[in-house]
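Sequence design from tokenized structure. All designs in this work follow the same two-part layout: the structure record, then the generated sequence. An example of the structure record is given first.
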């Protein structure tokens, strides 16, 4: 046996002893937890246990990371929260649940940058680069790995640099032009892991060293290296690395057409089950199930079937627990596509009907002409005249029927246009805002306080989106046949106060003062939800276009059996070209509007609601500055 071979065996024996020491570390930290009185120390201990459990038992690692995250959030411990976010990202990466993993890595990167945590920034950049590599976005992956290498080099983080170099190797080893540099990076990583006695790093780099041995044609040596890694990791409970080694051995055996491939596949599944990594092994489990069926090995086939079912149930639970916003977004896209398809089908049907109508119209003209000619030839002028009048009346009736049919189709088409446009602008846009806010934050762009503020904005945006969705459903119900408007009497001041409380976060964000001038006991007779929709939109528009530290005034006046409620802001006013058409359908896509304005469909819905309540709605520019939106309703017969 060569000298290098003996050195490798000695290193693996040392690793086995060190892995046992790591197990003892877990036990020692667990025993010390009840004696820790400082909450920050307790959070650090939970994060340490999570990190040690990661290559051994995934569920335990995730559980401790969640506990650390909850405790750190409760006591506002920044370092503990950053470590917990990275732990949660690693946990979901191995479920595998890469969407949630990316979200946690991204939040961890922002927090580490805000805190000036170079080590945390390095690990987060490396993890995001690996995420992009799994998404087959090589350019993005290379960008993040290069940034991670630079931060690690500038900060002198040699022990972390070893892991970044391994990731660099993973991203570039399949590129023949970058292979020499990738191989050099792997050698540096191996040296650094041995220098710092980084046990997981040593085992991990040996896996890829075996791959390079295979590339060099040393197949037997590569297999022996992987067997030694598998034995050392398996005996000490490093289930993830043992599983990874088994999968590599499976690939080597398949490549050499050896019968041992099935044995190593089964071992890899055993290690995955022991460590909770079955989510990564679903294709392998499915393949073993099919093989057992072919071999008529019913007991093992049933076992693999139950295991595959458990993995799929676990993935479904993860999806339900962590991707509600993502699923809502995808469902909205599917619904919008369905409506567009239906709209397209309606338009084609309308065009077909028009073509058919024209065809029959010309056919009837020809028949009528022939009939008139025959009548002229067979009868006298009087009978021909009478028949001509009868035909004219018949044509008029037919044209009226066609006109009514076309009008009904046009009304249906207009309604679908409104519905599609509203979903596209007033419902989908807030979801994009949520995704954009939680997306990748520019380097050194936010402090921890700003990041927390943006999370609050996400909460408000999600709540506002739900309100918009409920209001859209209510408006749709008013458009359907059979809708009957029922009014009741309410205190106007209570309704205005409820609206102001719902939008208090918007008022506070711009330090806007709200002045409410409503006589005590003023009542209004209306549908509560319809009128509150109008209040919310009028106040929301006033806040949107008011300057910081401005004043919004809400007045109520009774005059000539009408109740007039006005919302007055100090903004820039309404464009004179837009003002006359503000509440009309069809003018909002072509007319210029105030800066920051959305689709404007809410004002159309407001007019629709006020019309159903037998009221009036209007907007006008103030004499000096700002604008006034107001509505009028018939004065209620009762007072409070």
């Amino acid at each position: 046996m060569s000298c290098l071979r003996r050195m490798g065996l000695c290193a693996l024996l040392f690793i086995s002893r060190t892995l046992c020491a790591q197990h003892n570390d877990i036990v020692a930290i667990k025993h010390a937890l009840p004696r820790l009185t400082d909450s920050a120390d307790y959070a650090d201990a939970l994060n340490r246990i999570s990190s040690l459990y990661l290559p051994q038992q995934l569920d335990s690692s995730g559980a401790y990371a969640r506990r650390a995250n909850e405790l750190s959030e409760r006591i506002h411990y920044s370092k503990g929260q950053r470590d917990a976010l990275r732990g949660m990202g690693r946990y979901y990466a191995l479920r595998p649940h890469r969407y949630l993993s990316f979200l946690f890595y991204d939040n961890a990167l922002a927090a580490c940058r805000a805190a000036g945590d170079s080590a945390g920034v390095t690990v987060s950049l490396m993890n995001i680069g690996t995420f992009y590599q799994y998404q087959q976005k090589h350019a993005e992956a290379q960008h993040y790995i290069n940034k991670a290498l630079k931060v690690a080099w500038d900060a002198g983080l040699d022990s972390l640099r070893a892991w970044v170099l391994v990731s660099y190797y993973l991203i570039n080893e399949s590129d023949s032009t970058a292979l020499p540099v990738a191989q050099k990076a792997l050698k540096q990583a191996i040296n650094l892991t041995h220098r710092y006695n980084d046990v997981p790093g040593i085992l991990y780099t040996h896996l890829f060293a075996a791959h390079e041995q295979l590339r060099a044609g040393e197949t037997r040596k590569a297999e022996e290296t992987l067997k030694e890694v598998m034995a050392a990791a398996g005996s000490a409970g490093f289930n993830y690395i043992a599983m990874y080694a088994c999968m590599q051995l499976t690939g080597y055996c398949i490549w050499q057409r050896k019968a041992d491939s099935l044995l190593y596949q089964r071992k890899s599944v055993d290690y995955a089950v022991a460590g909770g990594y079955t989510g990564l092994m679903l294709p392998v489990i499915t393949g073993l199930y099919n093989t057992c069926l072919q071999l008529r090995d019913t007991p093992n086939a049933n076992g693999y079937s139950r295991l595959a079912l458990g993995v799929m149930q676990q993935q479904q639970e993860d999806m339900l627990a962590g991707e509600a916003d993502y699923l809502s977004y995808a469902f909205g896209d599917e619904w919008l596509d369905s409506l567009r398809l239906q709209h397209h089908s309606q338009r084609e049907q309308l065009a077909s009907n028009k073509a058919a109508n024209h065809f029959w119209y010309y056919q009837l003209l020809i028949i009528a002409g022939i009939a008139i000619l025959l009548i002229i030839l067979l009868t006298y002028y009087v009978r021909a005249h009478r028949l001509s009048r009868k035909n004219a009346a018949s044509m008029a009736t037919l044209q009226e029927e066609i006109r009514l049919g076309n009008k009904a189709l046009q009304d249906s088409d207009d309604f679908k246009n409104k519905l599609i446009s509203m979903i596209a602008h007033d419902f989908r846009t807030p979801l994009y805002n949520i995704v954009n806010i939680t997306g990748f934050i520019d380097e050194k762009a936010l402090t921890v306080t700003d990041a927390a503020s943006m999370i609050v904005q996400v909460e408000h945006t999600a709540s506002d989106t739900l309100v918009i969705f409920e209001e859209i459903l209510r408006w749709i119900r008013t458009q359907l046949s059979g809708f009957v408007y029922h009014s009741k009497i309410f205190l106007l001041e209570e309704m205005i106060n409820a609206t102001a409380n719902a939008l208090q976060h918007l008022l506070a964000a711009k330090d806007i003062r709200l002045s409410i001038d409503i006589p005590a006991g003023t009542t209004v007779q209306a549908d509560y939800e319809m009128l509150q929709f109008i209040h919310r939109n009028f106040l929301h528009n006033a806040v949107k276009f008011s300057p910081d530290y401005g004043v919004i005034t809400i007045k109520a006046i009774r005059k000539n059996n009408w109740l007039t409620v006005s919302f007055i802001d100090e903004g820039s006013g309404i464009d004179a070209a837009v003002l006359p058409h503000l509440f009309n359908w069809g003018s909002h896509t072509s007319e210029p509007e105030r800066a920051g304005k959305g689709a404007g469909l809410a004002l159309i819905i407001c007019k629709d609601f006020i019309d159903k309540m037998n009221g009036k709605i209007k907007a006008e520019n103030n004499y000096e500055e700002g604008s006034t939106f107001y509505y009028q309703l018939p004065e209620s017969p009762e007072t409070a």
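DSSP finds 22 helices and seven strands in the chain. We note this feature because it recurs in several other targets discussed in the main text.
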